[in-house]
Amino acid sequence: MIRVLGCSGSIAARCHTTSFLLDDDILIDAGTGVGELRLDELARINHILISHSHLDHILSIPLLADSVIKLRMGGGGPTALQPVHVHALPETLQALRDHLFNGVIWPDFTRLPSVQHPILVFHELAVGDVLSFPARGALPERVVHVLPAAHTVPAVGFGVETPLGWWVFTGDTGPNPELWDVLAGQKIAQLVIETAFGDEEAYLAEISGHLSPQTLAQELLLLDGEVSVYITHPKPGEVPAVLSQIRALDTRHVIEPLREGQRFHAPVVDRRQM
User: Fold this and answer.
1) Which CATH number does the domain housing residue 111 bear?
2) What integer pLDDT is reported at residue 77 of this predicted model?
3) What are the residues facing 169 on neighbouring strands?
């Protein structure tokens, strides 16, 4: 199951930035939506997949690390600590080291509570990687594909295998022909795609590596079949205008706004039964 914790382009009351929870132990991005989880839910997070280094997608990582250290020791002390694994592009991980976990903005939790047993462990990924997260309890193996994105900093999207097809999250992106090449011929269950600006600010979308409704329409022409499309990342106060422009588009796809708290109930693929 995939649960939407946050899908706003910025913050306001009841608006949280990008984060999704896959089953109960994998975060996809770590914006302010992570704060919707209870402490016991935070402590179950084993993996965080990061699309890119911008603040609205990473800012909960240091706070989560600080919150769960004691719980993830399980009463066994520092040597029993179960780390949280952060997966991202090398450039994204370096940005976290340089600008976040630098001892100035936040303590370096890749070396705390000890170098030998840190709460955060970084892992590099690359476009085209297929990440496999093992079965755990009642949860089957989870398979996540790393997809290309076109943003102002190195960025990726993610595709989660489900029995109904892939659940695809584009991440922050502008026009991205490489993505549609990768998805061609692939069965897509749902597409979560950003539209950060209205058409009246298309120039801002272009220079900041985002989509507006008109560029969204051009991108969706490259998407095979008829797909359920969910719009993410409009800013608070701009959602009605952006959605009005999107609903006026001529497209074969069914387009709806993504909503915080929304759940995609299809269980992930259990490869043991394939």
Assistant:
1) 3.60.15.10
2) 87
3) 158, 192
